[in-house]
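SEQUENCE WITH STRUCTURE:
===
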Amino acid sequence: MAQTQLKDSVDPWKYVIIFSKFLLVFVECGITKSFGVLIPDMVTRYESDYKTVGFVCGLPTTLMYFSAPVGGLLMKVVNPRIMAISGGILSAVSIICSPLAGSIYILGIMLALTGFGMSLTYFPIIVSLNIYCAKSFIFANTLTIFGSTCGAFLVPIIVERSLEAYGYTGAFLILGGICLHTLVCGAVVRPPKDMKKGEGSTSTSTAQHELMIQRADSTSRETWSDETSNFLPRMNDDTPRTQKKGVPSCNSNDTVNSPNGTRTLCESLTSRMKLFFLFKEPLYTLVMPAIVFFGYVNGAWMLFLVPHAEGAGIQLSRAVFLSSIAGISGIFGRILYLVLLHFKVDSTLIFCVSSVICATSFFIDSVSSSYTFLAVMASIQGFTMFHLDCIPHAMMKLSVRSEENLPQAIAVNPFLFGLGIIVGDFISGHLYDITLSFSFLFMTFGVVLVIITINLVIYKLIDRRRLRDG
């Protein structure tokens, strides 16, 4: 695995980076969960349906992850710290102005800007986290994702009380104030200062980090552009390395002497395909469906948990506490996951078992509509779902075999997760509009989790066979 060749930074600033990632996902997940409280008001206010409102409410989280590749490109020409701070301002101002929207479409644009702003903060932070915690990335990232659990626990209660006390506009103002904390997250972004030339491993990533450190004291735009471009994906840089490893060139003698152009075309196409990131990392390509499908379940479950309880006849003031129950249970789930990681339990096995348990809770969701039963189901779902959301980054780190390809995976991974979220929110809202049954909707979540389990099992079998064959 790529991470076994790396070395963590000893710069104490890494704890600030870890906390900034914690705070960012706190805000992101808190906003997503709080929309579950506001959805009924949005449907009434804009005379819309759950399909459209679900799509719109999923835009902040979706765009935050969906726009990560754009953030990677911007980091080549913009100071990452300035970019991250600007993103925090854009996200907060957009969500504060959201109540002024005269239609559901204008609201969608405002929330999309919120998500894009958070993506400008997200990408520099996740790249910095991988630099500071190159070896212990899975463990460190799991620590930061505690923020999403805390956000799911606290923010919906704050928004529900704000909605009752200050109305729809006041609730969005409170959300904007919470979102403004992403500005602080962006302000702390900087490269580590402890790595010096000759230290650490000989991997490409470490060499790139050393190049960053040599210029860490300079804060000019040109310096930051050079630093970030050293570890962002560049296909042109891969060409010489790949050809040195024996990838056939379209200018080879065999190709020139071929009787027709078929061989030339095939060899040229094969060469180009082998240069493409996903063909160089087949195991990562294999787990991509699991990342997309988990985004589908995670986003839709967060969005429709509270409306599901309201549909069962439970008052909003009580239904909102299901999010808190899920969040508290998720904290224990994350702690268990960290303990299992400490004892070297395979992450893929953990994810498979949790997926089966979570799927079962969705399948039996329709057994009862009592508050006690729904609270138990929410606790089981929170316990499993809030450490299943380690799937994207954990499986990325486990499946990417070359550290040279990891920056490209960091850019692609959030895009896949965001794609799953927006598709899940839209399709789930559409299914509810058709069936008017949250129980049926939750059963579809169970089916998707079963598909995720099958995908991970296939990955693990192939990985074991590869290791056995040497």
